[in-house]
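Most newcomers find our protein records easier to grasp once they have seen one. To make this concrete, we reproduce a full record directly below:

===
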Amino acid sequence: MGFFDRISEGLSRSRDKFKEQMNVLLDRGPDLDEDFWAGLEETLILADVGGAAASDIVEGLRDQATRKALPDAYAVLDLLNDQIASTFTPGGEKVFGGGEAIVLFVGINGTGKTTTVGKLAKEAVDAGRKVLLGSADTFRAAAIEQLEVWARRADVPICTRERGSDPASVCYDTIERAEQEGADLVLVDTAGRLHTSADLMRELEKVVSVVRKRANMPVYTVLVTDATTGQNGLAQAREFDRALDLDGVIVTKLDGTAKGGIALAVSHELELPVLKIGVGEGLDDLKDFDAHDFARALVGDFDERG
């Protein structure tokens, strides 16, 4: 099965939910009246793409419908995939693009940060890069051991300290070792932080600040978010971005969720590129994000013209 097919399969619940709502809307007829536009926006919101993105998508489609004199709702829906794709924030190529980089991974517990770091390490090694892992999650039980397992699977070195150590110190050690060993990609796993805890977020701000001041290569901060959390994921992303000035987002656990639209909500509202998406637990289940493929998988096609 190709990766698009796996994305499509993973987003089937999201797509089925969207198409069910759209079919109800289309049953009333294909006229481009106010009820259609309001219904389309509501359906997009129910698909978890977020109010701001839904409004912009509908506004863009209305503009095209007027300029192109589109005849009916089906002609509008033919343009929906491209309109959704264009609503994602572009960019982010530099983060994993092959140049020197230190990437800090942040997010709440359970989003798959450590697993994501491991998968990215394996991908980078396979591409011929010299990778170093940093285990700055010194709080969660077995977090260091979990990353060590991934380091062995990817055959990359890892910088650790004992559990309970200051995570900023681990980052400092990691940067020094990267310089000594000539690593060109440093991936740092941080502890899961509740976005609602000011003290925990301040500690994470300290970690990011130390790395940005000490590093001699570009530093990127990437949020790993879990698609199954829906709009809660958007609230988390807002707080992490406010505190840390994020550079991008990785969306995990898209397989089997009915809330896949949250990837668009986060990207559009916070103006963050989606860097990677995850559709499973396997080593090859984390891939580069493609906005057009994602849009196709999220909403499907509407060709049931009567």
